[in-house]
Specification:
With about 120 residues, this protein is mainly alpha-helical. The protein has helices at about 15-55, 85-90, 100-110, 115. The protein contains four helices and no strands. About 0% of the residues are buried.
Amino acid sequence: MMHGYWDDRWFRGWNDPWWTAGGWVMMIGMVVLTVAVVVLVISALRQWPRLSAQAATRSVPGMAAAPQAAAAPPAPPAPAESPLDIARRRYAAGEIDRDTYLQLVADLSGQTTGSAGQA
């Protein structure tokens, strides 16, 4: 007996032999495809900052290159502190008293104080 679109040939429900084999395969395929698209989108979003940085540094033929910030020259090495500078710094910090400072200055400059020369 024919019932139009809902004829038994067109709609058989869960009892359809095509649904039991091909339907499950198609459903699993759609899940795999959905997961693959989600993974690709997440991967693309994670790569975005690195790709943007590379694109900003790459020159395009026919376009003027973007001005690059000049790298700062390396700082010159700090000069080594002389012994007199060390004595001044220690005296200023209060690590040594005045007499010790004067004695160090005299010893380092090759002079002798009156009390040091008399023994």
